[in-house]
Write a structure and sequence with these properties.
alpha+beta; 4 helices; Arc Repressor Mutant, subunit A; elongated; two-stranded antiparallel ribbon
Length: 110
């Protein structure tokens, strides 16, 4: 697989979009990250990461319909692409290989 460079936050956003499936839009991604990680996230950072991931071909987006609840504004929904799924699978395998190489440490607690 070609080299894939994702920052930690981009990887997190990509994973959350995959988890949310058809309901991934900026605020939902931000809320899910905060829920899953207990990290306070800025919506601008989420939107920037979503845009970068779409530019890299890991996400695609479409505009949903306007709703009264949003004052007539429309949501931009994101879905993961095949390249995005391949990337998160590759990252997971790579991390697992590295974790498997960590030697056991005797902490002398027995």
């Amino acid at each position: 697989m070609p080299r894939t460079n994702l920052g930690e936050f981009e990887e997190l956003v990509l994973l959350i979009v995959a988890i949310l499936n058809d309901n991934a839009y900026g605020v939902a991604v931000m809320d899910e990250i905060e829920s899953q990680t207990e990290r306070k996230i800025n919506i601008s950072a989420v939107h920037s990461a979503l845009d970068r991931l779409e530019t890299k071909g890991f996400l695609k987006s479409h505009i949903g319909g306007a709703t009264k609840a949003r004052g007539g504004r429309r949501k931009r929904f994101f879905t993961i692409t095949v390249a995005g799924r391949t990337t998160i699978d590759f990252i997971k395998e790579q991390r697992n290989r590295l974790h498997d190489q960590i030697p056991g440490i005797d902490l002398g607690l027995s």
